[in-house]
Amino acid sequence: MKRTIKKVAVLGSGIMGSRIACHFANIGLDVLLLDIPPQELSDSERNKALDLGHSAVKNRIVNDSLQAAIKSKPSPLYHKRMSSRIATGNFDDDLIKIKDCDWVIEAIVENLDIKKSLFEKVEQYRTAGTLISSNTSGIPIHLMLDGRSDDFQKHFCGTHFFNPPRYLRLLEIIPTPNTDPEIVDFFMHYGDLYLGKETVLCKDTPAFIANRVGIFAIMSGMHTVEKLGLSVGEVDKLTGPIIGRQKSATFRTMDVVGLDTAVKVSTGLYDGLPNDESRETFQLPTIVKQLYDKKWWGDKTKQGYYKKVIEKGKKEILELDLQSMDYKPKGKYKLDILDQTKNVENLKERFKLVIKADGKTGEFYRSTFFDLFRYCSYRIPEIADELYRLDAAVAAGFGWEMGPFATWDAMGVESCLAAMKDMSLQPADWVSEMVNAGNTSFYKFENGKKHYYDIPSKSYKVVPGTEGFILLDAFKESGVVWQNDGATLYDVGDGVLDLEFHTKMNSIGSEVIEGINTAINLAEKDFRGLVIGNESQNFSAGANLAMLFMYAVDQEFDEIDLMIRTFQNTMTRARFSTVPVVSAPAGMALGGGCELSLHCDAIQAHAETYIGLVEVGVGLIPGGGGTKEFTLRASDEYIAGDPELNTLQAYFMNIATAKVATSAEEARDLRVLRPSDRITLNRSRLLADAKARVLELADAGYTQPVERKDIKVQGKTGLAMFGAGITGMLYGNYASEHDAKIAQKLSWVMNGGDLSQPTMVSEQYLLDLEREAFLSLCAEPKTLERIQSILFKGRPLRN
After folding, report:
1. Cis peptide before 381 (omega within 30 of 0)
2. Which of 630, 579, 583 is nearest to 602 (CA)?
3. Is residue 393 a contact partner of residue 214, using CB atoms and an 8 Å limit?
4. Which of 166, 275, 308, 343 is most buried by its number of CB atoms within 10 A?
5. Bridge partner list, 159
6. Is the pTM of this model over 0.70?
């Protein structure tokens, strides 16, 4: 049957419930968020002479929870206006309203009896045939169904979101034996396509997949830390981005999540897994138990493995000495492996280095990774029948770039297997059987598809659900059309090329510039169009500042002029190609990365795209056509009834304040995304959606654009108006003198110079002004100080 979701009810407005409600609002649904009414009045309610029956009192818990979620950072909403889609109420008065909802999600306290009691009430009002699910993180799903009707049981499932629901991509789907298979298929499809999730089918086992493996990895790591005597700071350096994990790494993550939460899950696993061969690992090591007993649970108790203090008016972060249990200033750790890997952008190549590291570092990596590999090998088929499900759940749920089996592949299955046996960390027999049969990897790519090793059949099968994805690894063997050190061009089928950057942070230097020009040349010759996009964490952090800084320090202004001309010409090449060019940004798309996207025929952005023109932060203005493009767009929006130039001012302020959109939806407000640009929710689908956009443009009869010569600029009128505003900001101490100088240069470009009256100018006219202003700022000492601070200290400088 065709099923459409228009309205969702979320029962429970705690940390998870309120944020799940926000994410459903993100995708355009009406949401009903309900919670219990309070049992007693607050002081403010008593002062207002309200009683427990008053609607404001009865909805206080749910309303306070929702407002706390909306105000939290990072925001659970793509845009604050989306909160208007959420209606609130309480279980006493409003549970009847669930009859109009297509999906009811329970997200109340983790207590089986309380959940069963709520489901009994839900059954009274729920419309037959509508979906019902629980967001429980650990209670067995089947135990919730006692006394429920056949229709309820048929449409019931576990749907476990991870916190925060907007940002962590995992949605675990846990059916019961009574769940209709069509309902399971619907949840899997809907979570993927509409919620943007990595939907993973799980068995109804303790903690399902991600928490079972993730908590094991954490506890195994803690035992190893205790054994080797490593420090908090050292471990967080070793377990963060260097191995494709969150910057918060291990101990900082524990503080953010809450040590009590991790302890609760670990203790629950120890109690609930009497037959697990590694059960003892879930026993709390001393460095966890001592903090738990002291109630040093992290941010929620103001101290954990780290503690924020204020000394003489200055904030300082202290770290815990695990030996003395005293706090001390954060250490500056010099670890050889960090130096060895700092210029290695490819995670798979970094893994090959870390697993061979010397000393305690290498011992830590080998002990923790090999123990994890061993544990995962024994979990199949207990918690999942296929290894790819385990990888997908752990990576999406904990923010790892690669799951355990993919990591094992990167490190080398055979070499790791031999080392594991030497360390008495023997994996399950099927791993040795696989290798002995000549199969030396858990995954492989053939015919543009990703295959996994299927244990029962002892053969490779296509990973289900990925048939419509574009996975660039699948094209590395036979789909590479051209490459250099900074970029690779793939033929991704149907006459479409994809250009991938692989410089540090995907910055745009000479190799990438060459790649863009070559890609467009080849696309115009033999293909229908081009996608510019990748599968890494960030689209592009912008232009190569290091090269610019070197030339500026040496006062090689002719070289800088050539660099900027080349950059501008490349952006123009993207704009005026004879085939459609589509940008597919995700993560950071800053500075030059934003300018490139602005010049493409269309943008197919991932929902989590953080895009903006940030050059002012390093003492410059956008010099690759970004200033010109915003001026052009302001001209197109100009209306005669705007004597204060509000439209132009909005574009000006976006650049002058270096605004960065915190979502693709917000990028529409900043006018970076046009109404015709589109958003993809599931990161895994982004390149395929961008390719489809290329083909759509080509099929519609794509016509090469021509240079615009009708851009209206204001000349001296605009300069005077903007100049007055800049002076006011300077005198009000809202801007430094150098900020004001940059703003004046920006105003000069966006108003077309000192023209005597509003005039129509060309794109090239504005590009020339832009380049001249950029060059002049490169000669400013304070601009060089800003660039130096970003390059060598990693933080912006206000001077």
Report:
1. yes
2. 583
3. no
4. 166
5. 173
6. yes
Q: How far apart are CA 368 and CA 346, in angstroms?
A: 21
CA 155 to chain centre: 31
HSE (CB half, 13 Å, CA atoms) of 424?
A: 0
* Position 645 confidence tier, pLDDT thresholds 50, 70, 90: confident
Secondary structure class of 24 (helix, strand, coil): helix
The whole-angstrom separation of Cα 418 and Cα 219 is: 24
The residues, ordered by sequence, that sit 6+ positions from 35 with a Cβ below 8 Å of its Cβ are 11, 12, 13, 14, 17, 61, 62, 65, 90, 91, 108
Pairing of β 529-533 and β 496-501: parallel
Would you say 282 and 219 are in contact if contact means Cβ atoms under 8 Å apart?
Answer: yes
Phi and psi (nearest 5°) for 8? -125, 140
**The dihedral of CA 420, 425, 427, 433: what is its sign?**
positive
For 385, residues 6+ apart whose C-beta sits below 8 A from its C-beta are none
Listed in sequence order, the residues at least 6 apart from 202 whose beta carbon sits closer than 8 Å to its beta carbon are 158, 160, 172, 173, 174, 208, 209, 383, 384, 389, 393
Confirm if 144 and 134 have CB atoms less than 8 A apart. Answer: yes
With vertex at residue 668, the alpha carbon angle to CA 662 and CA 672, rounded to the nearest 5 degrees, is 85
Which pLDDT band holds residue 729 (cuts at 50, 70, 90)?
very high
Beta strands 529-533 and 487-491, pairing class:
unpaired
Convert the pLDDT of each residue in 185-214 to its tens digit. 999 999 999 999 999 999 999 999 999 999
Q: The tokens of 670 are what? A: 């900043």
Q: 108: buried, middle or exposed (CB in 10 Å: 19+, 13-18, 0-12)?
A: buried
Put the strands of the sheet holding 314-320 in their side by side order: 306-311, 314-320, 327-329
Q: How confident is the model at residue 312 (pLDDT cuts 50, 70, 90)?
A: confident
- Half-sphere exposure for 190 (CA within 13 Å, toward CB): 19
**Pairing outcome for strands 759-761 and 86-90:** unpaired
**Distance between CA atoms of 167 and 683, rounded to whole angstroms?**
11
One-character DSSP codes across 348-386 = HHHHHHHTT--HHHHHHHHHHHHHHHHHHHHTTTTT-SS
Give the helix ranges, DSSP H, for 610-707. 626-637, 646-656, 664-669, 686-699
Rounded Cα–Cα distance for residues 672 and 661 (Å):
9
Sheet with 678-680: strands ordered across: 480-483, 487-491, 496-501, 529-533, 581-584, 602-606, 678-680
465 CB-side CA count, 13 A? 20
Instruction: Give residue-wise pLDDT tens across range 750-790.
Output: 999 999 999 999 999 999 999 999 999 999 999 999 999 99
DSSP assignment of 266-293 equals: HHHHHHH-TT-TTGGGGSPPHHHHHHHH
Q: Exposed, middle or buried: residue 788 (CB in 10 Å: 0-12, 13-18, 19+)?
A: middle
Phi-psi region of 103 (alpha: psi -120 to 50; beta: other; left: phi over 0): beta
CA–CA dist 710, 668 (Å, integer):
24
Contact 105, 156 (CB under 8 A): no
Rounded CA-CA distance 250/255 in Å is 9
Rounded CA separation 14/21 (Å)? 10
What value, to the nearest 5°, has the Cα angle with vertex 752 and ends 747 and 753? 75
Burial zone of 139 (CB within 10 Å; 0-12 exposed, 13-18 middle, 19+ buried) = middle
Chain mean pLDDT for the chain? 95
Two structure tokens written together for 419 = 């080392």
495 closest CA partner among 523, 467, 473, 534: 523
Percent helix / strand / coil, the chain, rounded to 5: 50, 15, 35
Q: Would you state the torsion angle of the CA atoms of residues 111, 117, 119, 122, taken in this order, to the nearest 10 degrees? A: -140
Strand 306-311, strand 314-320: pairing: antiparallel
